[in-house]
Structure formats: C-alpha cells, structure tokens
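Protein of interest.
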Amino acid sequence: MKEKNLKKLSAERPNVVFIIADDHRGEAIRAFGDETVQTPVLDSLVASGTACRNTHIFGGLTGAVCAPSRACVNTGIPIFRAMIGKDMMIREHSSVIRPDVRLMPQTMQGAGYLTHAIGKWHNDKASFARSFEGGDKLTFHGMSEHTKVPVYDYDLTGAYPKEQEYIERTFSTELFTSVAVEFIEDYREDRPFFLYVAYTAPHDPRTAPEPYASMYDKSDIPLPPNFMREHPFDTGDMAGRDEKLARWPRDEGEIREHIADYYAMISHLDAQIGRVVEALKAKGIYEDTLIVYTADHGLAVGQHGLMGKQNLYEHSVRIPLIFRGPGVPEGKQEHALASNIDIFPTVAGLCGVDLPEETEGISLCPIFAGEIDGVRGIVGSVYRDVQRMVTDGRWKLIRYYRSPETNTGTERIQLFDLRSDPWETQDLSAEPANAGIIERLASELASWMQASGDILQDKPVLPVTSLA
C-alpha cells in the first residue's frame, strides 16, 4: 500500500509507539530539572508533548517489581485483581496475568490495530500470545547481561519452548531498537500499528557501550540531597539482590560511580530512542504517531541509603510518563496525580478505542483537554507485605509492617511534606501538630487498600504507638 494512504489512515486513528524502560526513575530526565543527565531526545518529546510528572506505580508483591508493574500498565487493573498466583508475596517471581483480563495490546488489536512487540515482556507467555500478532527479539526474563540476551523469534503457537531460545550478542538497547526501526521502515499494512518496545535498560548490569560509558566522570556527579550511608531502620527488604550491589555502609565515591553508570545507560537509551523517532520521520508518519514513554518503576541508587526499587520512596515509585502526538498538548508538564494503571485508559482515549469493562484505571485525556485539573485525589502504592503508601500530592504517608512470613520489617510510619521536602529527608510523623494530617491520610490509605482488594486491608494502617 502507498505510504500516503498509510499516513491518511494513521491520521484518523494514530499509530502508537509504546516504549517502556526498566528502572528509569521519574526525575532522571534533563527536561525535568536534572542538570547532570543528558537526554536530548526525551527532552524533545517533553517539549513537543505532555509529561505527566506525578505518575506512580501501583507496586509489587515480590522483589521483582518489574513484572507486576508491567501487568498494571498493560491491564489498567490493580495487581490484586490483575494477577494470579498462590502466595504471591513470597514467590520470587509472580508474573501471571489472569486469563480473563484483556490487555492494552489485546484491546488495540481488537480495535483494528496490528500489534507488534519487541524486547522484554516479563509476564506470562499466554498473556503475550493473546496480545500480539507479531514480534521480534522477545525476552521473557527479568534481566540478563546486555551483550548476552536470551531471546525468541515470534512464535505463532504462543508456546515459546526453551529449545527455541537463543542468545543475541548485540547490546540489548541497540538490538531492540534496530528491529523496531526495521518494523517501521518495512510497514505496509492498511491499518495503524501498535508497536510495543520494551527495553531492559537502564537496569543493571549498567555496562553502557562507549562513548556513553565514559560520558560521566564520577568526580563530577553530585550526590542527591537524600544520600545516606545507611537507611535508619529495617524497611522489610534490606538484604535483597539490589541492595547488595554496593557496600554497606554506602560509600560516597562508590555511589557516584553507580550514578555515573546509571546515567550512561539512560543517555545511551535516549540516543537509541532517537533512532526510532528518526525512522518515523523518514517514513513520513511522525506527526501521525502517538509516542508514549514510561518505565516499570524507579530506582534508589544511593538515595536513602538504598540501591533498589523495593521501597516506596518517590525515587522508586514515581516514573516518567511522556505522551507526544495527535491529541496531546505541546510543551506541558502536568503535575496531577496519576497511577500506572491510568496509562492504558489514556492511550485508548487518545486513539478512540473503547476500554474493556474490567479496566479500573482513569484516562488522563480530560486533563490534556483542559476540562479538569486532575482525575485522582490520592494515589497509593504497595510493596510486599511490609510497606504501603498514600499521597495527596503534598503530604505523603508511608506505613511499614513487620512481615510474619520473613520476620523482617518495622512497625512504624513516616510522614513527608513533598512540597517543601521533595527528597523526603524530614520525617514529620512525630510532630503533634501533624496528627490530623496523619489520621486523614491513614483513613484514605485504608479506603484505598480496601477498594484495591489489598491482601493487607484487614491490618491496621496506623501502628498502635503512632499518635501516642
């Protein structure tokens, strides 16, 4: 089919390039005020689109937060109703999406889109098979070395047996980008496409190729204001894999090196996304394509004395979310509260696609249209059976539990004023003047837990000594 006809069809219902990164925390983009990291391509998408700066993940019930976060993004449903698996909290990887739940790519396919996947899925193969009618360089693993990536070719049967898996040596970010570019260049269908590109960067091992590996000098890397040598109490997950990536107590020089390597991975990823953008422009369909950029969760990398994402501080639960394309305002940074379960409804709304009845997320399209200021009064997040969080955008309450399963964790709360303390350095929970704020947030957290089907909804939100 002639490309001008493809462009016409795309203008009526836009093509979609949905990009999801692994471990990219919300503030680590230069356009968002980080003066160290270099992200010119993402900056350009922010300048020509809308960035939803206050988007939080729903959370996870195991240390592998990637899988439940991706399930929330692709179903628009809280993990307690989107996923299945006995004893989800204590299983190392709980990744199975319920078979009766319709996913974002599955819904787009039903609306006439050709759905094509590249890269990391990390949920079950059955949910993948019912969502995509094509794909390339597919991996169902949580992580790997970036130059030793176990991948599959697309399998029409949906089985993806182990014997069909093979190793690719091209650096993962470049590998996935190259096949995404090929898909765009070769596309000739008379229907719009939904291209899902799931990177494994900037997840460790943080081994960016040159010249990116040498882009950041660790001696020039500023430590974040909330750097700590040690976290002041047991969060319930102090000895997991991620926390062992740096020595205890945390050393300033070592943390600077980790941040430099993290930023190198992000800048390399940014450049590769630029190749996708250029392919869309060369095809003549850039202006008719909705580009979405997000991540499955954030990462501490030394903040609060932590290294991983197994916590509910902003660096771990707040993610980048950028929309650019038809129906999206240009040059807007939106600070309304959002959850990652809202991403699917927003994509559907921008594409004129009806949502499945079971979807629980809320479209951000009315905010884009200027009809309302926000869709949520609060957002919450969960981690295993040891942490729960709620924020109204200014005040944030984190509730910590002691796990009977692992005998880890601490019975306590933290309260932060994100307006005056965005780095969460001052716990205000002990100040008597804040008792009313704590009680209000505790009530909202309890209601949110019940509405979400939280497995801890019957546990008290406040520890008995919190207001003594």
In short: Residues 1-11 have pLDDT under 50 and may be disordered.
